[in-house]
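Morning F.,

Quick status update on the modeling queue. The single chain you submitted on Monday has been processed. Sequence for confirmation:
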Amino acid sequence: MSRLLNQTCAGRTAVVVPAYKPDDRLPPYVRALKEAGIGKIVIVDDGSGEAFQGIFSQIPEDGISHVISYQPNRGKGVALKQGMTYVLEECPGQDIIVTADSDGQHTVQDVLRMARDLARDPSGLLLGSRDFSQEHVPPKSRMGNRITSVVFKLLYGCWVGDTQTGLRGFHRDLLPAMIAVRGDRYEYEMNVLIECAALRVPMRPLAIETVYENNNEGSHFRAFRDSARIYGVIFGGFFRFVGTSLFSFLVDYGLYLLFNNLLKYFGTSLDRKIGILFIQVIPHILIATVAARILSGVTNFFLNRSFVFTDKGKLSRAFLRYLGVFFLVMILSAVLTSSLHVWLGWSDNTAKIPVDIVLFFVSYHLQRLWVFQKKPGKPI
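Structure tokens below.
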């Protein structure tokens, strides 16, 4: 019964393998996947060049395995999307999709386990998770993944133990969304995680064998350039949020100076009744502050909506929620700063700095998760 179940799951599975300048381990890996009963195996030759065609020629076009080739090299993200597009258009019988690397890191048994898990529970994105505590794991891989996992948790609220894993599985229904994700190279896989976090698509870990052969020399990952791409993606949204906040601060301060000077001018130049109304009854500093804060807040809302969170939902709902966060943060800033001043004896100027730093992150997450919240189930 168990064997029949394994064969059924394998037959429903399409495995996409991006390959760039592979070694002679690739053809035996494809044969092993076939022997395990995998229904479709799509190998994507990502511009490996003429010198590697001998390896790809060992993979037959037999209705199960298929090789897609193009020139020049365009990156792992493009290769994955090429393979997934082929599965979407040409493989209607496969509803379980698994991506695996060509460098020997992902065993056939782990591919089958992933297929069985998705057959039982097709929801979300299944991530092959390696054990980085093992002694044979290269230190740079262990440290890099741990740092990336911590940063991802802080910025996106989800713990992903293996952010760099290439062994991933999902149901066919997610194919159009996966193909639409931005990114041409290694950053594509990180973009997938970010979009899943934004859409609250479950990301489930599956413990897999931790394979690092020859200190992972078969990998084409370029430590500096590709790491810069990945961290650029991770921090991209947050840095844009910092940028729009800084711009809004400059708008706020510039408008305050403008309104404050105009009110002082009119208060001393016009009739005393007007002066009493604007300067004595309502202090010009208060008027200038409130007017500048309102206009800079509206500016910040539209900048965040367009450039940080790319929200396409209902404008009025997002704006009302933004106002709620705007006033909540302003009230909390006053209350917490006063509390630190009264209870701990901090000066009000000193207390405001850590309070506003914490509230800056609070505002970021409230806007990401609530104000500009993406609806689950919409395309990634």
